[in-house]
Write a structure and sequence with these properties.
Largest sheet of chain B: 6 strands, mixed
Strand order of the largest sheet of chain A: 2-3
Distance between the termini of chain A: 35 Å
Structural class of chain B: alpha/beta
CATH class of the largest domain in chain B: Alpha Beta
Oligomer: heterodimer
Largest sheet of chain A: 2 strands, antiparallel
Shape of chain B: globular
Number of domains of chain A: 2
Number of strands of chain B: 18
Number of domains of chain B: 2
Order of helices and strands of chain A: HHEHHHEEHHHHHHHHHHH
CATH superfamily of the largest domain in chain B: P-loop containing nucleotide triphosphate hydrolases
Radius of gyration of chain A: 23 Å
């Protein structure tokens, strides 16, 4: 047995059962300590055990890789669909709303072509909605694994994040292409600024927001299959209350009641999308005060979701 | 302490009946919550009446109850028991798939568990891709899989199709590839469940050979099987699980013998089939009881060699069996089938429709079995469809008899079957004369 195999060993200690490592360390030989696993009932809330999750990172990557492979198998266009879906959504929205709102067939919003502004919000939106869509059903969809083999269950909702990230990077490249096109062939000009450096933060917020919801939904879905009916409705609703086809500035004007502003500020996607526009297009204001309540909400939902998932996971194999 | 690989102390697993249900909706939960106070009151009332035990028994099942045993380092332990005895639950707990309700288990060493072959195989992926995926799921590192890749492919014998999606594989190829990956898992402690029950006979032979290698290599193995021959051949020690508890521990032959005692009784004694644990999960319990008797004589005990055997099954149909079919498979004590008879295949025994409780009798003339203990599987069907299947339904003993009319009992011969034969001598034409 080579030492690197022990690297991926699984050692867990349910908090109710203290590990008695002294007995294994007592061995006089130089061999690495024998993994010692205690299996005992756990009650209530349990530790996240992120260290174990880290030891299983290869499996996480493999599952994400499988998702990507399988998603585009037997499709003619293959991975090109990662480009097509947001592109077609953008075209539809552009034709529909752009012509309605703009003038002379050259609609702009805050000095940015409507197509660019919309696509700039669609790219993080796709990331968010793909993660939610795939992650929420992941535990039920992996019941063949969960009932047959042990691995940290948190891997299941996390793997779609990685695979959706690949789609996101492709769509992001397309976004850069579109910006480049408008820069070269229209009177819109791209301005690079230091705000570009904040882009990873907005991506992170989008992923955290998606996960904060998916962790709850994926665990709930095991027991309550209602989740799969709620999900499409939830996603659609979120798209309309997020600044995809409009910008925050264009709707939050004048006599909008304070309670609407408050609720709107809680939507983390507002910060994500306005953050994207600010970082990439440089014409709008950075996300302001709404960043604080929405990030706080994501943080609470995310941490709560992680613990809730860990609490529920002990029943997955019996119920899923 | 250091020579113990697995230490199990008082392990128990309770399933609440509600948890076994596969599918719940929010509406049920709301309805449940609404009626909760009423149930709580009722339970409180029951508690007052000292009736808690019955209440608890009604909505919970102890799939495993107070199980304790140790497995020493390098030992191969067989776990046997009937369907539903709790073997799988035990494996699932030790593999950390599900948590115990009570007790604890300690495992010293890197564990690999094989509860099925091909866990996580994806039909759309190629053989090559599935080797990596399945290997990762079983707990191998990417480097480890890469270094063993060629061996795995060689062992599977599907190298020509390694870049073909496995959905185009035959089921045999699929299983061979899946087993090849599993066979190259090298944990210190291996937990295996019935993986040998797949594939054709030749492949099973190969799997047993590989298991043998694993067992000899000094690794600790926990092996759950219905295959008594395999348990016999591979294991150093065995435990018998019955009804959630360990009822016997000892050498494989002792425990296998014990297991057979739990299966059923000898000739002339009726075995109740109403809640028989050997019934397959999809069966409707139409067969109520079975008795094995000697056709031409009364009596309890064993059936003499060569006697006419009768298997009499009491059937209580819920709807008319238009063309009843009764299949009887006779097996040796290790579970290997010896012969099977079925009036579906043998012409001339079209039975009249059965629509009320009846006894279907299957008569096997001149029972061609050597002395020993045998098991019977029963298959009740209607036309082409099996309706009720009960494995290991009953056991019976065959006693030595002077079947050859030699005046003494026949000596032990090879195998469980005796058969008549005739001998002659014919002079060869002598070409020199």
């Amino acid at each position: 047995m080579s030492p690197d195999l022990n690297d991926s060993m699984t050692v867990s200690a349910p908090d109710s059962a203290p590990i008695d490592t002294a007995s294994t360390d007592a061995s006089p030989t130089d061999t690495p300590p024998i993994p010692h696993v205690v299996i005992a009932p756990s009650r209530g809330w349990v530790a996240l055990n992120l260290a174990e999750l880290w030891r299983y990172r290869e499996l996480l990557v493999f599952l994400a890789w499988r998702d990507i492979k399988v998603r585009y198998k037997q499709t003619v266009l293959g991975i090109a669909w990662a480009v097509m879906v947001p592109l077609m959504t953008m075209v539809v929205l552009n034709v529909l709303f752009g012509l309605l709102m703009g003038k002379n067939g050259k609609p702009t919003i805050e000095g940015v072509p409507y197509a660019v502004s919309t696509f700039c919000a669609l790219v993080p939106w796709q990331l968010f909605s793909n993660v939610i869509g795939q992650s929420s059903g992941s535990v039920v969809g992996s019941s063949n694994l969960i009932t047959k083999i042990y691995f940290p269950r948190l891997i299941t909702p996390l793997a779609p994040v990685l695979s959706c990230m690949v789609d996101f990077l492709i769509a992001f490249a397309v976004l850069l292409g579109i910006i480049g096109y408008f820069h070269l062939f229209t009177d819109y000009h791209f301005v690079i600024s230091w705000a570009l450096l904040t882009l990873p933060l907005w991506v992170l917020l989008a992923v955290a927001a998606a996960l904060s919801i998916s962790l709850w939904l994926s665990a709930l879905n095991v027991v309550y299959r209602d989740v799969r009916y709620i999900l499409p409705f939830l996603t659609q609703l979120l798209m309309y209350v997020s600044p995809v086809i409009y910008t925050t500035k264009s709707v939050m004007t004048g006599d909008v009641p304070q309670w609407i502003r408050t609720v709107y500020a809680l939507n983390p996607l507002v910060s994500v999308m306005e953050g994207f526009r600010w970082a990439l297009l440089g014409r709008s204001d950075p996300p302001g005060f709404e960043l604080i309540p929405s990030t706080a909400m994501v943080a609470v939902l995310l941490v709560g979701g992680l613990y809730y998932f860990r609490r529920m996971e002990r029943t997955f194999a019996d119920v899923a | 302490m250091s020579d113990i690989a697995i230490k199990v102390e008082g392990l128990g697993k309770r399933y609440r009946l509600g948890e076994i249900e596969r599918y719940r909706t929010l509406r049920d939960a709301i309805a449940n919550a609404a009626t909760a106070p009423a149930r709580w009151l009722k339970r409180a009332a029951d508690r007052g009446a000292g009736d808690v035990a019955t209440d608890a028994r009604r909505d919970t099942i102890w799939a495993l109850n107070d199980v304790s045993f140790d497995v020493r380092r390098g030992e191969v332990l067989g776990v046997i028991g009937r369907n539903g005895a709790g073997k799988s639950t035990l494996l699932k707990i030790l593999s950390r798939i599900t948590e115990p309700t009570t007790g604890r288990a300690e495992i010293f060493g890197r564990v690999g568990s094989l509860l099925e072959v091909g866990t996580g195989f994806h039909n759309e992926l190629t053989g090559r891709e599935n080797i990596f995926l399945n290997g990762a799921i079983l707990g191998m590192s990417r480097r480890e899989i890469a270094s063993k890749f060629d061996q795995i492919v060689d062992f599977s014998g599907v190298s020509r199709f390694i870049d073909t999606p496995v959905k185009r594989y035959s089921s045999g190829m699929y299983v061979r590839l899946a087993f090849a990956v599993a066979a190259h898992l090298e944990p210190e402690i291996l937990i295996v469940d019935e993986v040998l029950a797949v594939g054709d006979a030749e492949f099973q032979e190969r799997c047993l050979g590989k298991m043998n290698d694993v067992a000899r290599s000094g690794r600790t193995v926990l092996f759950v099987s219905h295959n008594m021959t395999a348990v016999h051949g591979l294991c150093d020690r065995a435990v018998l699980v019955d009804n959630g508890s360990i009822t016997a521990t000892g050498s494989p032959s002792e425990v296998v013998g014990q297991y057979l005692h739990t299966v059923g009784s000898g000739a002339g004694q009726t075995v109740d089939l109403a809640e028989h644990v050997g019934r397959s999960s999809s069966s409707a319990p139409l067969m109520r009881s079975v008795v094995v008797t000697r056709a031409d004589a009364e009596g309890v005990g064993s059936i003499p060699m060569g006697a006419d055997l009768e298997v009499r099954v009491t059937v209580k149909p819920t709807e008319t069996l238009t063309r009843p079919v009764l299949g009887v498979v006779v097996k040796d004590i290790y579970g290997a089938p010896l012969f099977g008879v079925n009036n579906r295949f043998i012409p001339g025994y079209t039975l009249a429709p059965v629509n009320s409780p009846s006894v279907i009798c299957c008569r096997v003339p001149n029972l061609p079995l050597m002395p020993g203990r045998y098991l019977i599987d029963l298959y009740l069907g209607d036309r082409q469809k099996n309706i009720d299947v009960v494995r290991d339904a009953i056991a019976f003993d065959v006693a030595a008899a002077d079947v050859y009319g030699s005046g003494s009992l026949p000596p032990e011969s090879a195998g469980p079957v005796y058969w008549s034969a005739s001998w002659t001598v014919e002079p060869t034409p002598d070409d020199e004369s």
